[in-house]
Amino acid sequence: MNIGDAAKASGVSAKMIRYYEEIGLVPKAARRGSGYRDYGEADVHRLRFIRRARDLGFAVEEIGELLALWSDRTRASSAVKAMALSHVEDLRRKRDEIDGMIATLEGLAACCHGDDRPDCPILEELATETAPVGPPPGPPRFGRPGGRAPQRS
Question: Where do the record's region annotations for Disordered lie (predicted)?
């Protein structure tokens, strides 16, 4: 099958198939007399494996390791399990970082009046050199002594 057919069958775009060939995750496809790439079922199966690993968030380097383990019939499943559990820890760390970013942005948005005035605690926080990640400490100060919000007229 040509690259378009392989892309449809695997769920991997033709552009990504070319990239995976270039970096060695997928062997270079055989070429027809016309010069078009020619893919078989084994290639599509490998591409599906790669797509599923990418869907689970594995990095390209890790996918290369997983492919090597998949191809090695003498592998120990403990090596695969260790990779999976290590990846779970990476995902948990990323989730914690995202949760911190969400908390920070929610806290900042709660401090912002969102009206026609130019003062904005969100922009003020982004402008600080070392903006912390996580909920803002204490009540918002709004740049005034005593931390009181400006009174509306």
Answer: 128-153
